[in-house]
Amino acid sequence: MLDVATEAAYPPFILGKSRFEQSTFYGRFRHFLDIIDPRTLFVTESRLKEAIQLLEDYKHGTLPPGITNKELWGAQKIKQAIIHPDTNEKIFMPFRMSGYVPFGTPIVVGLLLPNQTLASTVFWQWLNQSHNAGVNYANRNATKPSPTSKFILGYTGAVISAVSIAVGLNILVQRANKFTPSTRLLIQRFVPFPAVASANVCNVVLMRHGELEDGIDVLDSSGQIVGSSRIAAKHALLETALTRVVLPMPILVLPPIIMSVLEKTSLLRSYPRLVLPVHSLVCLAAFGLALPLAISLFPQMSEIETSRLEPEIAARTTSRTVVYNKGL
């Protein structure tokens, strides 16, 4: 019975493919739950080398006897979580998708702290967009080299936009005399969402603007590079930007609602020191749910009809569709 269950959970291994169906949202959700598994942060260097070697052995048909599909899928999960698919280099731990929730939750807690001062608002928005900039850059489509100057320009623009929007909204709320103090406090708790959502879009576009200029590689059904397409790059950035708008919704909207209810309970009224730990747990739960939901909206290896690409690229292949790495 166990063997049957294992066989169902781990189908025959295919290098570079997901063990979950990528044409459905549920399949992509399960796939990205695998990708963001924080346990991969603790994989040792020797274990990573073993995983990479196992995949190389599979690729060259030299697998040792007795290797199971489960072991192969596990090896690929480790490699995908740590190694960038285009550069084949290790991604800095806080910028991996598996590190997004553990390293991002303290920042979310800071963004949602009540009674923010101007200085604290600026600090948390700067820290959030700095983390986002690192994640966007580390998980970009890297088939084309990008100069450091573009990274600095994108980072500066993203931080300025986030801080400007957040500070501007806070000032508007504080000057709205018609609101009662309690209403003003509640509205201020929701200020981070429009600030973060709009800044996230700026962040993605500015951090990956080079893709719009140079294009990204598109591959045919046999995995061969057909050409470098600006149209595919636009689709990649649009899809990624949409996920960055959806991502902060549960993270920055649900915790204020939940905390406004919990803070009225006798437990938190009697023990106010519990407010911050409870707030942190609520943010962690919301973040842990929101990330896989948001990045599951589109497959990482997205597909586009060849007829929609530049004519010179479409003329190079007989494939009806091509794929490209959307980035995360």
From TrEMBL:
User: Which GO terms fall under molecular function for this chain's record?
Assistant: citrate transmembrane transporter activity; monoatomic ion transmembrane transporter activity
Q: How does it sit in the membrane?
A: Multi-pass membrane protein
Q: Where in the cell is it found?
A: Mitochondrion membrane
Residues annotated as transmembrane = 100-127, 152-173, 241-262, 274-298
UniProt record, GO biological process: amino acid transport; citrate transport; mitochondrial transmembrane transport
GO cellular component terms, semicolon-separated: mitochondrial inner membrane
| Pfam families reported for this sequence | SFXNs
Alphabetized UniProt keyword annotations = Amino-acid transport, Membrane, Mitochondrion, Transmembrane, Transmembrane helix, Transport
Q: Which PANTHER family match?
A: SIDEROFLEXIN, SIDEROFLEXIN-5
Q: What protein family does this chain belong to?
A: Belongs to the sideroflexin family.
Report the NCBIfam families cross-referenced here: mtc (TIGR00798)
Q: What protein name is recorded for this chain?
A: Sidoreflexin
The gene name on file is: sfxn5
